[in-house]
């Protein structure tokens, strides 16, 4: 790409008279087929501070190795904080486009492909991210002895080999070894995790490995039950193992990712925190040819963002965890220090280092006893003590200091979400998790995952993902066989997750959920499970039987618990040979069940 | 300490008209008997930027806990890099005194007591550092079954208990657990590690632990041989376990530590790097009452310092590693990048993050094949890529690029050392390690350690501690029973440590060592082992038998190998009932052996 304005420099007059130029990496000695990390790092350093640059890669396979990569300490939510080697460190960039020109960016070992931090108007497009050796191994079962709970598996990839040491299997990587730790067995017949997956759960003690051939290992008592012949056990070791997410966005405004494919990663495909406006179009997370698993954790994950998260035309499949998760964080109040100042603590180990709030943010003081909102205030000052604790000063205090354990959630940093025309499938865990107080629309998507379809949860107990939703529309989507993991999943499951000692308050936790016009095909006849939801509309959905998996969970098709103002109307169920029923408990009020087909509403409307 | 000039503020007119004042912590709500970390952090933040402050603690026991401590990522040489919680973060201070007023600073868990970084004229004085629970456990053997290689031990301290899990002993700490890992068995009769310590070395496989009482554990096959009844096995788990050094000095000018005692630490007592002029007076590392071990690693350690390291009147005892170690670093040349620029790599895992050089430093290109100096140049630019690698540009290059593997050592950052009137004893490993090209004087000290007395080594193979010495005087010291660990130690052992494929060059590695007027009492009759030393004087030393340990190692009292210009004169050996001999090999030249008593010089002078 020679240009008329000097080497690698194309000047364009843009609207608003901003000078924009395209920098062709070829003009800087960056060519396919070799490790270009150092040169890319160097070029980006030169470009920092310049607005309007498009960094263009002619189509090719560019390699990125960690040895000479720049390094920064990164706290990455839902991952393991550490010094990270970085291929594309986009710190403080503005009006910048990374155009991969349909290239493959091939990574080796623990290096983070793209980090966007403290930047504005960034576009990432037209490239794929893969690793020479992914962060997991695939063990294909080639022999099986159920009686002795033993199986022989072929190990792939073998580039860094494996070894057996003291009866333990150690799987080789680029500079480290993984034990047989976190894993999921995939069924080659469905391309998805197995029905009743936990049968094959790992036993952490008593397992014995033996090397039985160049690329074969025999594992005895490694799993509760030996996986079936042909099963692909995708395994990625124990924590800390989320050290190299594929794309990390932090503290940035207006980020677009378009036509980008992630084949692997030592963590999530995309993790974003404290960003405003993120647009994903044709963002794909999938497994590479010859592999079963793609990203080992979630395909996409958003914590404490605002503005709009717009996700369209995306394919998210074969992940080791959820398709998309949008939420905030509950932080604990350790102590009230006086002078409107709270000593707060990040609640979850993998949220350490999170910027929970900054001055100007609206925060809600929340009971950790009954997860009810208590008092809204505005942050006037913060002081970070360490990755776990910080001081937060607010402008107004309640007249009486509330009793019991307290938390805060940040009301300013909840985004709206639009997710359209996306596919999420063949992954461990859920298709979608939504815990935001913003306006949410999920429409025209196709979902099929091992656990629930759309999980609207919020918990102040283990993951500390806030908060209760206020406006969610789930319309015209297809849900196929959710919950084949244990047979009990629902297309929509909305309920806060509570500790035994936590109680529901007087008011519902979630508000305004519309689940309408969705087409569901499944084995268990499930439609909606809702607990502590106010204003729930379940209308015009069709549920049709699918015989891929064993049928009936024994659970109600529609399960309601402590809900208020619920309309279940014009839904139809077809083909099920077991009772399809609705159950209401926990003092649900204002329930209307009307004009449904194939749903036994018992005495509810009588 | 009320003052006439406002609360906690004593103004003094100093020479040079600098305003100095004393800040009494009591006036800032910092009082003994409680966790004062947050308040101390806050007060130090307020004082930053002010010159001439003395921060004064009225005598008491002040507690420091990690929960609310500020945190910074720290690369600490010879330790494990990590985010560190810090009690006294002295970053960018000038003319500052921390006067503990004879207080005890008591720490809990992983918190670093004092870090001095990028500071000038800092004085630390009059306090002791201890931990509520130290970073090791002491297991006292109360029953022993040699036949079954089993012993029962009482565990101390028990504050955080211990547990046995899957046959493994897990020793409780403030927020973590240690396996039975690195350890040293102490002999209560001598207060020092056992004779032939390795007999009791840990077996890392096949060990079985069982809980046999409130504070008792039975260990079978945990050690090669069950330690004797009464033995105190001091154990501190496996790496990473050097996460909380006691005092860390970095990039600072003129630091004085006076009347400071360190009783424990999760690493070294004092670690200093890239500092100019450090003065230790009455710095004590010792075990607390009721404990056997003090610091788990070296008492003091200096890497890449310059100016003068002045150590006097210090007591360093009961450590898990060396008394003092002064050295530089060899970094590897990965690749010559052209334009006088080298891609270099930090050689040792625990040196990662080291600032090897800065522009203006003189560096020596060195052969990694025969550890000989090749070419001296001056650094004009550096660029740090990550904790392992950096680019270094020099002003001049040799006419012909040298063949074979290369390293650099930094000639500018080698300090002079004066060590006087110190005691180093009852520790694992050596009394003193010296690898500096500066002028060194060790005088009037008392040494007795498990390995060598003074080890002058330098290695470009495993620890990568440069460099060959140029001027060392070891005069009028007492050496008692060095090398009781394996019986083979020497009062003075000077020899570069080489890989099998490394060879000595044409010239000697170490130059100008004078070992004179020392009094030695030992069991093996050893005096000096020297390899590749030029200009070695061994004069007027007395060596007298001591019967504490089994006698004779079979090794020569004076062993010379590839030395040049050596004078062994007027030394006397008394009381040994086995041959005391001198051996010279490896083409040693210019050897004079004269007027020694009790030394069989064989045919050397004939």
Automatic annotation (TrEMBL), chains A, B:
Pfam families attached to this UniProt entry: Beta-barrel_GLAA-B_I
In terms of InterPro entries, this protein maps to: Beta-barrel_GLAA-B_I (IPR057275), PbH1 (IPR006626), Pectin_lyas_fold (IPR012334), Pectin_lyase_fold/virulence (IPR011050)
For this UniProt record, the keywords arranged alphabetically read as follows: Signal
- N-terminal signal peptide: 1-20
For the GLAA-B beta-barrel domain, which residue ranges apply?
138-233
- Protein name, per record: GLAA-B beta-barrel domain-containing protein
Phylogenetic lineage: Bacteria, Pseudomonadati, Kiritimatiellota, Kiritimatiellia, Kiritimatiellales
């Amino acid at each position: 790409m020679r240009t008329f304005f000097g080497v690698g420099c194309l000047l364009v007059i843009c609207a608003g008279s901003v000078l924009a130029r395209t920098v062709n990496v070829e003009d800087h000695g960056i060519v396919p087929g070799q490790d270009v990390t150092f040169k890319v790092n160097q070029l980006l350093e030169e470009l920092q501070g310049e607005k309007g640059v498009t960094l263009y890669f002619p189509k090719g396979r560019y390699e990125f190795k960690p040895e000479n990569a720049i390094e920064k300490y990164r706290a990455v939510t839902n991952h393991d904080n550490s010094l990270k080697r970085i291929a594309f460190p986009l710190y403080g960039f503005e009006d910048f486009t990374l155009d991969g020109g349909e290239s493959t960016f091939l990574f080796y070992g623990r290096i983070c492909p793209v980090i966007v931090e403290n930047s504005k108007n960034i576009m990432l497009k037209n490239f794929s991210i893969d690793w020479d050796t992914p962060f997991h191994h695939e063990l294909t079962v080639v022999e099986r002895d159920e009686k002795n709970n033993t199986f022989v598996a072929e190990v792939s990839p073998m580039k860094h080999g494996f070894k057996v040491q003291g009866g333990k299997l150690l799987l080789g990587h680029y500079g480290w070894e993984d034990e047989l730790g976190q894993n999921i067995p995939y069924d080659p017949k469905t391309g998805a995790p197995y029905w009743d997956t936990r049968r094959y759960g790992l036993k952490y003690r008593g397992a014995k490995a033996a090397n039985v051939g160049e690329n074969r290992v025999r594992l005895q008592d490694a799993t509760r039950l030996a996986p079936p012949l042909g099963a692909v056990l995708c395994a990625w070791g124990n924590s800390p193992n989320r050290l190299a997410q594929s794309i990390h966005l932090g503290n940035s405004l207006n980020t677009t990712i378009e036509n980008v494919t992630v084949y692997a990663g030592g963590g999530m495909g995309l993790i974003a925190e404290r960003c405003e406006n993120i647009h994903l179009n044709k963002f794909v997370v999938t497994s590479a040819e010859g592999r079963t698993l793609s990203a080992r954790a979630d395909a996409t994950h958003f914590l404490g963002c605002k503005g709009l998260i717009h996700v369209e035309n995306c394919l998210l499949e074969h992940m080791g965890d959820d398709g998309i998760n949008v939420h905030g964080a509950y932080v604990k109040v350790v102590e009230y220090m006086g002078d409107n100042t709270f000593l707060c603590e990040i609640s979850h180990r993998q949220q350490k280092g999170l910027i929970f709030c900054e001055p100007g943010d609206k925060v809600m003081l929340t009971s950790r006893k009954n997860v009810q909102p208590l008092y809204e205030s505005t942050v006037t000052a913060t002081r970070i003590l360490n990755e776990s604790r910080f001081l937060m000063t607010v402008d107004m205090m309640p007249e009486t200091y509330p009793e019991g354990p307290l938390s805060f959630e940040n009301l300013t940093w909840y985004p709206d979400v639009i997710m359209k025309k996306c596919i999420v499938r063949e992954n461990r865990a859920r298709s979608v998790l939504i815990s935001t107080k913003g306006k949410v629309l999920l429409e025209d998507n196709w979902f099929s995952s091992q656990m629930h379809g759309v999980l609207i949860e919020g918990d102040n107990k283990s993951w500390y993902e806030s908060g209760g939703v206020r406006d969610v529309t789930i319309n015209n989507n297809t849900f196929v066989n959710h919950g084949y993991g244990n047979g009990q999943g629902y297309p929509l499951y909305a309920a806060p997750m509570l500790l035994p000692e936590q109680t529901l308050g007087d008011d519902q936790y979630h508000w305004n959920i519309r689940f309408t016009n969705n087409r569901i095909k499944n084995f268990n006849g499930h439609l909606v499970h809702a607990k502590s939801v106010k204003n729930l509309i379940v209308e015009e959905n069709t549920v049709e039987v699918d015989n891929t998996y064993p049928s009936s969970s024994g659970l109600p098709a529609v399960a309601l618990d402590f809900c208020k103002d619920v309309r279940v109307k014009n839904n139809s169920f077809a083909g099920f040979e077991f009772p399809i029923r609705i159950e209401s408990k926990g003092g649900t009020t204002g329930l209307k069940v009307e004009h449904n087909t194939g749903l036994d509403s018992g005495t509810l409307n009588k």
